[in-house]
TrEMBL record:
InterPro entries: Acyl_CoA_acyltransferase, GNAT_dom
Top-level taxon: Bacteria
Protein name stated in the entry: N-acetyltransferase domain-containing protein
Gene3D superfamilies with a match to the protein in the record: 3.40.630.30
Entries under SUPFAM superfamilies matching the protein: Acyl-CoA N-acyltransferases (Nat)
N-acetyltransferase domain sequence ranges: 1-182
MF term (GO), any: acyltransferase activity, transferring groups other than amino-acyl groups
Length: 242
């Protein structure tokens, strides 16, 4: 296997994007914060945007952002969006980063169960340590949380198997690497759109105003037909590696 950055191999951009896109629901790609900040993330933090190749084929990838964090739970960003904003604006203001936040990791569905997500996370961690960053954190989007959209993240994070590890596969992956749960990221992503847009993103109808269970959404989606607005506030889970 070979690990490269997307800066080194811009020819892989489209293929890598396909690997990432197949792992997330459509509505995730309509968060306004990445639209405003992602180009600056790519400009500033290309060394933390990696692709794993096997025989020349893209099999996995992941990226993170360096940001200032004092190590306390109270100083954590509110989630994914806030971490991106803090990283970009901190960099542009000349604030020295102290932590790397994993933002996403994905494995091609054709290469599941090979431990490739761990390879991605380990390489990002290595780069963070090499850069002198003291902390590695992540606002996780637990794999099975969408099955329990009425359950609070803090409660879900406490569900364990007989071996003491989380019932959730993605949380377990991080735990096996030594990560510990810090607590919920209460406002990790906020996605707004018209009712028609949400019906398209979710591939379902919203006939009346109310809160809906939407496939692959970790929390309920609030639909207001009178205002022609749908709002989804996603709660994630902060973990820390070392």
């Amino acid at each position: 296997m070979e690990i490269v950055t997307r800066v080194d191999r811009p020819d892989l951009d489209e293929i890598a994007a396909e690997v990432f896109r197949e792992r997330w629901p459509e509505f995730i790609f309509h968060d306004d914060v990445p639209k405003k900040y992602l180009s600056r993330v790519e400009e500033h933090f290309g060394g933390y945007d990696i692709v794993v190749l096997d025989g020349g084929a893209v099999v996995a990838g992941g990226w993170g952002v360096p940001l200032a964090w004092n190590g306390s739970v109270d100083d954590l960003p509110s989630g994914y969006d806030d971490a991106m904003v803090r990283a970009v604006e901190g960099h542009e203001a000349g604030t020295a980063p102290t932590a790397l936040s994993f933002m996403a990791a994905a494995v091609s569905s054709a290469h599941d169960r090979r431990g490739l997500a761990t390879v991605v996370l380990a390489e990002l961690t290595r780069r963070a340590r090499e850069a002198g960053l003291a902390h590695v954190i992540a606002p996780l989007r637990p794999t099975w949380k969408h099955r329990y959209p009425l359950v609070k993240m803090a409660d879900y994070a406490g569900w364990t198997r007989a071996d003491g590890l989380s019932v959730d596969p993605w949380i377990r992956t991080h735990q096996r690497m030594g990560a510990r749960v810090l607590g919920p990221a209460p406002r990790s992503m906020v996605i707004e759109g018209t009712v028609a847009e949400w019906e398209s993103w979710a591939d379902m109808l919203f006939p009346v105003t109310g809160d809906y269970v939407v496939p692959d959404a970790l929390n309920l989606v609030s639909i207001d037909r009178e205002r022609d607005r749908g709002v989804y506030v996603e709660e994630n889970l902060w973990v820390q590696h070392g």
